[in-house]
Amino acid sequence: MPFEVIVIDNNSSDNTVAKAKAYGFVTVLSEQHQGRVFARNAGFQAARGDIIARIDADTVLPPDWTTQLSTYFDRPDALQTAWTGAAHFYNVRFPHTVSAVYNWLVFRFNFLLIGHPSLWGSNMAVPKKLWDTVASDVCLRNDIHEDLDLAIHLHRAGHHITYDKHVKTIVQLRRVRSNRRELWAYLQMWPRTLRVHGIHTWPICWLFGDVLLYVLTPFLSLSEQVARVFGRKPLED
Question: What pTM, to 2 d.p., does this model score?
């Protein structure tokens, strides 16, 4: 069992807070400054444990997730590292293929671009003392990827990141079918994060990451339409 569970209410307008408060072991905190980075920082600063494990609101954890994290951080050298796992998307056709491509881009392609492993916010953990070394340095911007930003700052502070492809959390692939304009704006955050940190491979990221993904994602919508023609149950968007 985790030492504590903290949920950050970042101006939610649905019933998330009520659902979270229904669990006695959950602490709900409010962060009125809108944005993922401000919500993350509020939770990280409030955390009292030695290891801060972070997920997103739509993350579904495997039953042994905290056990696997505990096993990893029980290693004597692990407290000098951050940890991240992989993604599995449930709301797309061919979920294994789509998830594999996504994981390759986030972890393998990003490694080629920045020279070290990245972090993925829906499945990650960082020792509290490592967070404390970079908490005042991370970028407070909503137009970049805050998890990638954190990975860059940790690396530049001399800390290592471990990627475990075998530990996967289940998440929803968003924006692909519902809002192409929002998807394009979201994709732009990736090369912008690199550019903000002076990483000169950002044009490669823009061309082979953003543009290629934007061109290919309509095939996911097409596969959904074909599936519906053949009577398959619609997937959540």
Answer: 0.93
